[in-house]
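2024-03-11 09:14:02 DEBUG pipeline.ingest accepted 1 chain
2024-03-11 09:14:02 DEBUG pipeline.ingest length=246
2024-03-11 09:14:03 DEBUG pipeline.predict start
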Amino acid sequence: MAPKYLLVAVVVVCVSAWFQFSPYPLPSTCFNGRLGHREIRFPNARCPNPLPSPYNTIFTIHGIWPQDVNDDEIERYSLNKNCTHGLIPTPPQNLPNHLGPIYQGLDSLWPDLNNPNNMQANYGFWGREWSKHGQCSDYPTNPINYFNSALQLRQNLPSPDFGLQSGMRLTVQQVIATVSSYVHHTPEIACNRVNNIVQLWEIRLCYNRPPSSQQLIQGNNIRNCPNPTGKPGSLCSNINTLINVP
């Protein structure tokens, strides 16, 4: 199956946002099956309430998740050893040996919101993301490029909050339009339900896949997402649904 999309996710407070990448059908380490999509930490996660500053005011990264042409996940390496075309991916327990040079950036922009500013918790979270999404990415033996790709995308965002403030009550269509006004492309948003109230869960942005595994995703590769309201039947599938911004 020809590959088409990559995803990156970010979170604000207990709201997450994702980026997707739309790769061309070029030779790659993986992307010939299904790769991590919609890996959700909520509602099972128990974020501190309130979150400490600055995590309570900015979007932080959740993950970077490549997609195939049908906007579906690629199976993780443990389920699809062929995704790396013979390469043995870096095991998650070895990430501390690779991510030291960018740890400060990851701690600021890709923390484990269940336990922010905790190195052990962070590496546990990054290890899970690496196992589910990174090992079958274009960077199976180069995790620093995988994680740095997400940092670069996050740093290239034009706004830390896309103009969305806690307490707002907007329709799905209004959220999409607000985010689009900042990034000039159509996002995908996702919702969840907390105490019977539908709230904004994720903002997902889509990006073109890099030309080769040696290059990082560039911010100017942003593109329209194929499913602005998510898959059919999702809580955000009706553009007129009112949702809360946490």
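2024-03-11 09:14:41 DEBUG pipeline.report Residues 12 and 59 are 4 Å apart (CA to CA).
2024-03-11 09:14:41 DEBUG pipeline.predict end
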